[in-house]
């Protein structure tokens, strides 16, 4: 049996945000937590747009996931509600938090993508806190994450990658290579570092991986840096 803490993502219908969170957490934080999801009033099926965006934009196949009632959850260590006013008084957990995410249903792919990117950022933050044994977070943890991200950016090739992705949106490795003057193994090393820190989000398609910036990671950097700089 896994010794990883069980993290349950809960919303009303368990058809969209909580399902995206379960899939994203399994992909980005599966070495630190065991994710699951449920709904207070579960739908019959997962929102097909959520499944499609996970598949097409993240390369994640979540077709085996199903909406579930709270009663089917295992013993929960961390309860994350998604921002729909859900209250789960009968579901004990040693830590609870709300991510305050709007439901993207009916608002197009960009809304789904923005929600999923925010979930990636929140998941990486939760992973950091779980691994540090500090679920409530701390200023020091935020500094450590910021320092690691700045270190990941402190390389001319990686800064060039960030510039290209900022200008072009999503690019596959084959499109990045001609601009960088490095080989495939070196590019893979750089991209692994950027992805590990959540600055870049990868998507596998065939033999190539496509990359795009995580706008929320850079927003967090912008928010943190002014507090560190003197007037």
TrEMBL record:
HTH arsR-type domain spans which residues? 138-231
Question: Does the record bear DNA damage in its keywords?
Answer: no
Record key words, sorted: Arsenical resistance
| PROSITE patterns (UniProt xref) | HTH_ARSR_2
Q: Which residues form a coiled coil?
A: none
Q: Which domain of life is it from?
A: Bacteria
Keyword Nuclease recorded: no
- Under which name does UniProt file this protein? Metalloregulator ArsR/SmtB family transcription factor
